[in-house]
Write a structure and sequence with these properties.
Elements lengths: L12 H18 L2 E4 L3 H15 L10 H9 L3 E7 L2 E11 L2 E9 L8 H15 L4 E6 L4 H10 L3 E6 L18 E7 L3 H9 L10 E6 L5 E3 L6 E5 L4 H7 L1 H20 L3 E5 L4 E5 L8
Parallel strand pairs: 4-5, 8-10
Antiparallel strand pairs: 1-2, 2-3, 3-4, 5-7, 6-7, 8-9, 10-12, 11-12
Helix pairs in contact: 1-4, 2-3, 7-8
Length: 292
């Protein structure tokens, strides 16, 4: 394995054992076991599961089984989660100069919200620390509230960069017809913030004195607020995916508004320091004076 020096971390036996124990306990609670995938039969199962979840256009697989085989052979993270002997989840990551980049994950519909997603990430953390990898990165759609809360509040990952239309047009039902803006997150596996978050269960940001820069108006569409405060709250819809189906117009307005506000703040030094349960990013900008 060869990764960049920025990604390597000295992992003592205590931290490694703790990560392994937490991952194992979380997997037991979710009723799953994890195993690295190696055979073409396993790759075919994993690719089929990814397609069932992401639903690409007919004839265009999200990720080819033979490419999964290559990633596994080259030391990547290609892992299946099994319940009652059946593959119910899969996660795929590749080595990068930052450490491990988690590219795609899929969880069967009946098990979403049942702890399998968290179990996958904690298995990934233990896997990486076992190999001396200190950082995991991945992307998510910044409009999806449940993912923002999971990544930032439940795992303790940090929003590192706003990526505009990162993947371009995509051919799956989840992303079709919408720009693929993404937040790149970095997960400092051995860092104090991540360890505190995993121990406590949630990292809840204090929002006292923060000014609302983006929120939902009376009709559900985005309304711009003030941006000249040091601490800002940037809101997103409660369920952007449902809104795309029920009301595509306001859904598109939200994409534009969030891109305008959050990407601009981050590009000018604003740090996303948390995500609230009611759907707001907390952004702190030390260079700005408090509003008032």
């Amino acid at each position: 394995m060869s990764v960049g020096t920025e990604s390597s971390v000295a992992v003592g036996p205590g931290l490694r054992a703790q990560a392994e124990a937490v991952a194992a306990a979380t997997a037991r609670a979710a009723g799953v076991t994890f195993a690295e995938l190696h055979t073409m039969s396993e790759m075919n199962q994993a690719a089929a599961l990814i397609d069932r979840v992401w639903r690409p256009d007919s004839g265009a697989a999200m990720i080819a089984p033979n490419f999964l085989k290559v990633l596994s052979r080259c030391g990547g993270y290609v892992v299946g989660g099994f319940r009652d002997g059946r593959m119910a989840g899969v996660c795929v990551g590749l080595l990068s100069e930052l450490g491990l980049h988690s590219h795609i994950a899929a969880v069967e519909e009946p098990l979403r919200g049942a702890g399998l997603g968290r179990a996958i990430k904690l298995d990934q953390r233990a896997w990486a620390l076992r190999r001396g990898i200190g950082t995991v990165t991945w992307t998510y759609d910044p409009l999806i509230s449940r993912n923002a809360y999971f990544n930032l509040a439940k795992l303790g990952a940090v929003a590192a960069e706003y990526l505009t239309d990162y993947y371009g047009a995509m051919n799956d039902e989840v992303n079709a017809g919408t720009p693929t803006d993404r937040i790149l997150v970095r997960w400092d596996l051995a860092g104090a913030h991540v360890r505190r978050t995993l121990e406590s269960g949630t990292a809840v940001p204090a929002v006292d004195g923060a000014v609302v820069a983006l929120d939902a108006g009376p009709g559900g569409g985005p309304v711009l607020g003030l941006r000249d405060a040091r601490r800002l709250l940037v809101g997103i819809p409660a369920d952007a995916e449902a809104l795309r189906v029920s009301d595509p117009g306001p859904a598109a307005q939200w994409r534009t508004a969030l891109r305008d506000v959050l990407s601009t703040l981050m590009a000018h030094g604003g740090r996303v320091t948390g995500f609230t349960r009611d759907g707001f990013y907390l952004v702190e900008h030390p260079e700005q004076k408090d509003h008032g």
